[in-house]
UniProtKB/TrEMBL annotation, chain A:
Pfam family, one: Ribosomal_L14e
UniProt keyword annotation of Ribosomal protein present: yes
Keyword Ribonucleoprotein set for record: yes
Large ribosomal subunit protein eL14 domain boundaries: 57-132
Gene Ontology molecular function: any one: RNA binding
A GO BP annotation: translation
Keywords from the UniProt entry: Ribonucleoprotein, Ribosomal protein
Classification via InterPro entries: Rib_uL2_dom2, Ribosomal_eL14, Ribosomal_eL14_dom, Translation_prot_SH3-like_sf
Similarity comment text for this entry: Belongs to the eukaryotic ribosomal protein eL14 family.
Name of protein: Large ribosomal subunit protein eL14 domain-containing protein
Any one of the GO CC terms: cytosolic large ribosomal subunit
Length: 148, 261
């Protein structure tokens, strides 16, 4: 038998300390962390945030309303209270990690695109055409020099 | 003169005056009105005043007015009405009642302008010869139609009328303060009424037809005078001129109900 590198399959787990994103409901688009797992379908969730409109109060949320993010707050004690969670949240710099993630940036980009006015869409089209032209020009030059 | 055969509505009126005449008479004969005073009878609840009829009689001083007038409330003698002209008996009375058409009190006014449309807004025309063109809105005409211009030099749309329903309003606005559109109204755009000429021979007919197709110089000058300051303010905004020159079209993946204009 040859050497086979078998990597065990891994996926994001529902665990204490997992940062989650609300996809629907009253707290849509807000981050929170799992404080405790209630049962197969529900988790106790708490989301301290610097901006009051992004705060998620401590409550039990259905997992169907949440999306798991790759961010985990390590060693968060089970059923930690609000203050402890807030301290751990700030220590782990969850907000910063989220804002820098590709996921957050993609969301922001789609929101921006959806809100473009007709004039802005025209300007974007123009700029993309110009960028496209530059890229193709360089490619053509590269191809020409490669042939020669 | 009331007739026993067929009473019409006029014959049944109680006074010889119209409502307007009665009002005029009242204004003429009554004392000039003092400044409107609030009611002396405060309202406890709708329909019920605080004071009774007898209390109000005393509050209003009707007893004093009567005393001043010798015991009776002063009444003006009715104004002498001019003798009504001797009406001639009509020649013909219809056998059945003639129905009167219902009153039409319609007050024609221009269509309500959408709040997103204001002078200087860039509109997208959706139908007709210029569909897809982005165009500048100038003002709403008395008929309710919108007065627009390309400007002509930019996208070929002349001074024209367009219906609000066939237009998408974008959020882009052009500075229109330097443009004067006072002189344009619906008559300017209406079809010219031609004098009826006698049916001439072939030559006559051809000569007339040729004249029709030429746009009068006056209209060309109007276009230029409106467009000149407009183009100046358009060129002040980067990309706006080419934006107005381009046509709008739906591309793959564009959902009109989700687009922000």
């Amino acid at each position: 038998m040859g050497d086979a590198n078998i990597k065990a399959s891994q996926w994001r787990q529902v665990e204490v300390g997992r940062v989650v994103l609300f996809s629907t409901g009253l707290y849509a688009n807000r981050l929170a962390v799992i404080a405790e797992i209630i049962d197969h379908k529900r988790v106790l969730v708490d989301g301290p945030a610097s901006k009051p409109e992004k705060v998620v109060p401590r409550h039990s949320a259905a997992l169907s309303d949440l999306s798991l993010t790759p961010i985990v707050i390590d060693k968060l004690p089970r059923a930690a209270g609000n203050a402890a969670i807030k301290a751990a949240w700030e220590k782990a710099q969850v907000d910063k990690a989220w804002d820098e993630s590709a996921w957050a940036k993609n969301r922001e980009r789609s929101v921006k695109r959806r809100q473009l006015t007709d004039f802005e869409r025209f300007k974007v089209m123009r700029l993309r055409k110009q960028a496209r032209f530059e890229v193709r020009k360089t490619m053509a030059a590269a191809r020409a020099s490669a042939k020669a | 003169m009331p007739s026993l055969l067929a009473p019409t509505r006029e014959s049944l009126s109680f006074s010889g005056q119209t409502g307007e005449e009665q009002r005029e008479e009242r204004d003429r004969t009554m004392a000039p009105p003092q400044s409107a005073k609030a009611s002396r009878n405060p309202e406890l609840i709708r329909g019920i005043g605080k004071y009774s009829r007898s209390r109000m009689y005393h509050k209003r001083g009707l007893w004093a007015i009567k005393a001043k007038n010798g015991g009776a409330f002063p009444r003006h003698a009715p104004a002498t009405k001019p003798a009504p002209p001797a009406a001639k008996a009509p020649k013909f009375y219809p056998a059945d009642d003639v129905k009167k058409p219902l009153l039409n009190k319609r007050n024609p006014r221009p269509t309500k302008l959408r709040s997103s449309i204001s002078p200087g807004t860039v509109l997208i025309v959706l139908a007709g010869r210029f569909k897809g063109k982005r165009v500048v809105f100038l003002k709403q005409l008395p008929s309710g139609l919108l007065l627009i211009t390309g400007p002509f030099k930019i996208n070929g749309v002349p001074l024209r009328r367009v219906n609000q329903s066939y237009v998408i309003a974008t959020s882009t606005k052009v500075d229109i303060s330097a443009v004067n559109v006072e002189k344009f109204d619906d008559k300017y755009f209406g079809k010219k009424v031609e004098k009826k000429n006698k049916k001439g021979e072939g030559e006559f007919f051809e000569a007339e037809k040729e004249e029709k197709n030429v746009l009068p110089q006056e209209k060309k000058d109007d276009q230029k005078s409106v467009d000149a300051p407009l183009i100046k303010s358009i060129e002040g905004v980067p990309d706006l001129k080419s934006y107005l020159a381009a046509r709008f079209s739906l591309k793959a993946g564009m959902k009109p109900h989700e687009l922000v204009f």
